[in-house]
Write a structure and sequence with these properties.
By secondary structure, this protein is an alpha+beta fold. Strand 2 and strand 3 form a beta hairpin. The strands form two sheets. Strands 1-4 form a two-stranded antiparallel ribbon. The protein has a two-stranded antiparallel ribbon with strand order 2-3. It is built from two helices and four strands. The protein has one domain: Alpha-Beta Plaits (2-Layer Sandwich), CATH 3.30.70. The structure holds iron/sulfur cluster.
C-alpha cells in the first residue's frame, strides 16, 4: 500500500507542524507553504493529518 499526501495551498498557513511530526521527513517548508518533497516516503501514519485541523492535508491510498 502506498499513500499520497497532498497540501491544499489555500489552507496551509506554513506553520511547519506537519514537518515536525512526520517520522520520515516528507515535508519541507518552502515560501511559507508545506511541500511534500518526499511524498514517496509516506507510510500513511496520518500524524500530519491529525496535527493540522484546518484540513490542509489530505492522504489518499494509491
Ligand atoms: S501520513 Fe505520516 S508519513 Fe505520511 S506525510 Fe503524514 S506524517 Fe508523514
Amino acid at each position: 500500500m502506498a499513500y499520497l499526501p497532498e497540501i491544499n495551498e489555500e489552507k496551509c498557513i506554513g506553520c511547519g507542524e506537519c514537518a515536525e511530526v512526520c517520522p520520515v521527513d516528507v515535508y519541507e517548508i518552502q515560501n511559507e507553504k508545506a511541500v511534500p518533497v518526499n511524498a514517496d516516503e509516506c507510510i500513511g501514519c496520518e500524524s500530519c493529518v491529525e496535527v493540522f485541523e484546518q484540513g490542509a492535508i489530505t492522504l489518499t491510498e494509491i
